[in-house]
Amino acid sequence: xxxxxxxxxxxxxxxxxxxxxxxxxxxxxxxxxxCSSLDGHVDVVAIGKASREMARAAQTALGERLGRVMVIxxxxxxxxxxxxxxxxxxxxxxxxxxxxxxxxxxxxxxSDGHGDSTLFLLxxxxxxxCVFPAPPLTLDDLGEIWRDALRxxxxxxxxxxIRATTSLIAGGALLRYxxxxxxxxxxxxxxxxxxxxxxxxxxxxxYTPSREDAETLWARIGVDxxxxxxxxxxxxDRSRVMEGSSxxxxxxxxxxxxxxxxxxxxxxxxRRGYHVIDQGFVVGDVAAVAREWGEVARNAGTRTALVGxxxxxxxxxxxxxxxxxxxxxxxMAKEFGGSARPSSFVARASDxxxxxxxxGGAWVTDVTLARIEELGLDWSEVAQTHDTxxxxxxxxxxxDGGHTGWNLCDLYLALVD
Length: 417
What we know:
Elements: H1 2-16, H2 18-21, H3 24-35, E1 42-47, H4 51-62, E2 66-73, E3 85-88, H5 96-110, E4 117-122, H6 126-129, H7 139-152, H8 156-164, E5 182-188, H9 211-221, H10 225-242, E6 249-256, H11 258-271, E7 275-282, H12 286-298, E8 304-310, H13 324-336, E9 343-349, E10 359-365, H14 368-374, H15 379-385, H16 388-395, E11 398-400, E12 410-416
Parallel strand pairs: 1-2, 1-4, 2-3, 4-5, 5-6, 7-8
Antiparallel strand pairs: 8-12, 9-10, 9-12, 10-11
Helix pairs in contact: 1-11, 3-4, 9-10, 12-13
């Protein structure tokens, strides 16, 4: 039991070390003070889960050069009195707040009194928090597209590409509204597959798919014929917008990326005396990924740490409650079950929210499967219905969540004694 407690303590420390090692304010200050091409007074637009923290850092770094500020976030705060305008959108399904944010964003960029330059601060979640669908698409249509994508189990890059095909701000369309001569995007990357471009559905990267490309994407999630017809009309409307001027001279810059979390975890695990197996960027169906991790862990030597970052894919049907990290952890309980070696696994969401408010992820050990049986829970049923949140709550094995001010995807860690 002492060994398992030590493993859990180590797992918690290793998987959260990056929060101490990384400074968002320093990253933004260094970029704006040393490398940025932005001149004169700078308007700031921050969109995403880390928008408030990014905006505050930019305000400090720009000082007297600061122009107007707009922040679009998923969490409001009455203490943000220094920020000119904060809009709250919905996540993961866009809502009325998201639509209002998209409309006000375009007006903000086009209004008189704009700065000499424009700074975009983009982080994960922006695709949902700020939307401006081309007509005749509605919010209900956007919700249906999200649900179709979830059922189909497509990765987030594919979903963002689909969103961009019918958006008047995604896929580079946002730059068509910018009136300043220069602009720049500082991007927190939360996608280990497609990198910076598909954060915020490529708002500041030009994306001009053909009609055939768009229809191929739509077919992957199985949209019904009436919705497909509306999407086609929206695609044609968007295409006309994209034929216009491309807007300012623009630069896209990666500010932070998942590899930073990975390096931090690897260094901390090594410091604590673990032999590290670098699992790198983790993607794919959660069941297949868990089997792979289980196999590697079973064949690992003593005192080994498996470390990876990414976003596993969950194909969801039904009304179960849970999140990616909880799904991965639940399946690792099965992989560890019956092992003679003390083992632990932690899956942690870098933004502090594993789909459910207040939940940052989950953890399991080699005895979790036995505890599941003792509580009368059915491991297979929970896995099939994706109802992991109530199960982990009953086990008392959820990680506390809360707004971290970051969004760099998930961190996964397995320790084997």
